[in-house]
Amino acid sequence: MNGVINCLKPPGMTSHDVVDFLRKQLGTKKVGHGGTLDPGAAGVLPIFVGKATKAVEFFEVSEKEYVAEMTLGVTTDTGDNMGKVLETKDCNTESASIIEVFNKFVGKIQQIPPMYSAVRHKGKKLYELARQGIVVERKPRTVEIYSIELIKYEKPRVLFRVSCSRGTYIRTLCEDIGRALGCGAHLSCLIRTKLGPFKISHAITLEDIKASVSSGKSQEILMSIDKILSTFMSSVIIQLRNEKSFFKGTEFPIENISTEPDNENQYAVIYDQKKQFLGVGKIFYRGLNILVKVQKSFL
């Protein structure tokens, strides 16, 4: 059993809980996820099964989209509604002021990872230290906010949509926005609506996955690895004479790439002459030639 499931994670479960649940349902230990969601969050959680687990690394740079609710005037120690309230302030902010502050956060920004996160410090996860009452210095990280859109504002709750890069903490974004507004804020609800090619409109609930497995239709919920990768990678059909080079890991020239690489780190889905999926290759230029070298084999 190999493939990818666009899973709809429910609130109240960790991402690892979902993986454990599906390992039991699918009857295999080779299950992984892409893009961790906090226990209180819901939404798109790609699940990789069998050989598809090799593809997780290629989704780590994917664009993400969330619909989030932020509550103004209340700050917590975790940055969300799961934590202890630290401060409460009156908030008389208007929609125009919120939109103005949103615009200031669009682009590349610096974020300090929250203490209640899985980021490691000297071998320990930050949330493990936080539960012991330990706070350590964290280095800011560069993330990118592509867009922020105000959906609805009913004081003190702000509903908005945000599109961002990997590594962005929406909790931290809410705290920073609240700070900029002068009243503080915390994340009160979060739904991930998109991660790369995976959209919430096509996500499958755990109940539906369980029903598909019980009825012997588990293959119907699995998307093929190459089909998913092809949504954001070029495709290459290699010549028979180059197959040995591919499997040996040596580079070789190609001509029939679906789209020319626009940078030195582009990947491509590789097929043989019979259009059998072989793996992922790294595409790069050398002079006027376009070359490929195996990055990951899926046979």
Automatic annotation (TrEMBL):
The lineage of its organism: Bacteria, Bacillati, Bacillota, Clostridia, Thermosediminibacterales. InterPro entries: PsdUridine_synth_cat_dom_sf, PsdUridine_synth_N, tRNA_psdUridine_synth_TruB, TruB_C. Belongs to the pseudouridine synthase TruB family. Type 1 subfamily. Its EC number is 5.4.99.25. One of its GO terms (biological process) is tRNA pseudouridine synthesis. Gene3D superfamilies: Pseudouridine synthase. The active site is at 38 (nucleophile). Residues 23-170 form the Pseudouridine synthase II N-terminal domain. Responsible for synthesis of pseudouridine from uracil-55 in the psi GC loop of transfer RNAs. Signal peptide: none annotated. PANTHER family: PSEUDOURIDYLATE SYNTHASE TRUB1, TRNA-PSEUDOURIDINE SYNTHASE. GO terms for molecular function: RNA binding; tRNA pseudouridine(55) synthase activity. It catalyses: uridine(55) in tRNA = pseudouridine(55) in tRNA. This is tRNA pseudouridine synthase B. It is an enzyme of class 5 (isomerase). Residues 171-223 form the tRNA pseudouridylate synthase B C-terminal domain. Keywords: Isomerase, tRNA processing.
